[in-house]
Amino acid sequence: MAPKNEKDPAKELKEKLFYQKKHAATLLSEKELKKCDKFCEEYKKFLTFAKTERKAVDYSVKALEDAGFRPFAAGMKLTAGDRVYINNRGKAIIAAVIGTKPLSEGVRLCAAHIDSPRIDLKQCPLYESSELALFKTHYYGGIKKYQWTARPLSLHGVVVRADGSQVSVSIGEEENEPVFCVTDLLPHLATEQMKRTLADGIRGEELNLLIGSRPFRDTKESEAVKLNILSILFEKYGITEADFLSAELEAVPAGSARDVGFDRSMIGSYGHDDRVCAYTALAATIDCKQPAHTAVTILTDKEETGSDGNTGLRSRYLEYFICDLAECFGLNGRAVLSASKCLSADVNAAFDPTFPDVLEQRNAAFLNYGVVVTKFTGARGKSGTSDASAEYVGEIRALLDKNKVIWQTGELGKVDLGGGGTVAAYIANLNVDTIDVGVPVLNMHAPMEIVSKIDTYMAYRAFLCFINE
Ligand code: MN
Ligand code: MN
């Protein structure tokens, strides 16, 4: 054993040469930890409010307008410090802060998604069976269906009436409001159901939402329970059954975001994927002082169903915005995009000690080890990835280190075991340097997902230094 105070050359060399990951709490002061916790109090309020992509846009528009952002119009005169945004159909939003450098040097783009897995109503949803009223549904995104039964669900969205007028629906979040529920079989009678595989345990057509049970009074008409529900809906929202034909109603887990753990180190909530990156990117965009490069933050829809559609990132709305912005400065949008850099802000899987076999521990992300930088996504031979270049990874690595942002690397699962993609590829395909940066999540896509408060704050810090650079 080496005596105290005497240097151990091997130990020193090891410290110099080995890459060591550390728990972020060991690297932060008590004051810094308090900052993480304080930041997350506002994030929890956002989560509790923004249960759908539409509500996330509503929240963002208000926050942006309060911070001096105004609606962008093609051809408007813009100078450094100007703050603008566009609202894409109430389901996606782009915010920009004009930089001091010419736009020809590109923009700093942060892209997150605000849609989350959920249960959507079908177009003809309402029916009565055995004197119960129910809604037929079609789930949205990748869910384990059994997780969505026997728990309180709220309902949000819009209904467009025959005359074109629109009514918003949001019910089941307040303590005094009713909730809805997908029923499941009692274990006593589930012998046959229990033989099904987990994937098949609850089938798509079994995700039926219970919405009522009391018949319309004093009638001999059939379907009196359904009639009673329609009567309540007509009174409350002025809608008839036919109005569901032109509605978008989403059932999501009811209730507020909550602290998790005796130490309150984590947040449990529906929708962390990807509102944790959306909120932190939005906050960074609002908080940035005067960026050198123009900052553009996009909160998009439809990521969970593959990014297609006019509010998803495979649509050209981002490209059109950059082109319109470029034209305000007499520039070509293509040249601006080619000079741009992007953080594709999305969550990654956190290592779960209960299920250690699916992740390769040397390359997996861990809760509380900071924001995750993911060089490549995809599955089976990196299929579907954009794979950030070593040069760009090096640049982001240096940026995060310089700004003392605690970060780690991550990979979504063991090779050939599964995988997944993000919007990174669609942005990289516009000839933009792009890399995935986000927050590690436990229980991803479940009604209650879990993130660490430290990692959430580090994502905010990462986006802020990227924008301010
Ligand atoms: Mn995501
Ligand atoms: Mn997802």
The count of β-strands is: 21
Mean pLDDT over all positions: 96
Named once each, the bound ligands are:
manganese (II) ion
Strand content: 15-25%
What is the strand arrangement across the widest sheet? Answer: 1-2-3-14-4-15-19-17-18
- Category from helices, strands and their pairing: alpha/beta
Structural summary, described in words:
27% of the residues lie in helices and 23% in strands. The chain has helices spanning 9-17, 30-49, 53-66, 224-237, 272-287, 317-328, 333-338, 390-402, 424-428, 453-468; strands at residues 70-71, 83-88, 92-97, 107-113, 118-129, 132-140, 153-160, 166-171, 181-182, 209-212, 247-253, 258-260, 266-269, 294-300, 341-345, 348-349, 371-374, 407-409, 433-438, 440-441, 449-452. The chain has ten helices and 21 strands. It is an alpha/beta fold and 469 residues long. The chain starts with 8 loop residues before the first helix and ends with a helix. Bound molecules: manganese (II) ion (2 copies). Residues 113, 273-274, 303, 346-347 line the site of one manganese (II) ion (MN).
Brief descriptors of the model:
469 residues; nine-stranded mixed sheet; alpha/beta; single chain; 23% strand; 10 helices; globular; binds manganese (II) ion
Give the structure's gist in a few sentences.
The protein has 469 residues and is α/β, with parallel strands linked by helices.
Mind sketching the topology for me?
Elements: H1 9-17, H2 30-49, H3 53-66, E1 70-71, E2 83-88, E3 92-97, E4 107-113, E5 118-129, E6 132-140, E7 153-160, E8 166-171, E9 181-182, E10 209-212, H4 224-237, E11 247-253, E12 258-260, E13 266-269, H5 272-287, E14 294-300, H6 317-328, H7 333-338, E15 341-345, E16 348-349, E17 371-374, H8 390-402, E18 407-409, H9 424-428, E19 433-438, E20 440-441, E21 449-452, H10 453-468
Parallel strand pairs: 1-2, 4-14, 4-15, 15-19, 16-20, 17-18
Antiparallel strand pairs: 2-3, 3-14, 5-6, 5-11, 6-10, 7-8, 7-11, 9-10, 12-13, 13-21, 17-19
Helix pairs in contact: 2-10, 5-10
Bound molecules: manganese (II) ion (2 copies).
One manganese (II) ion binds at residues 113, 273-274, 303, 346-347.
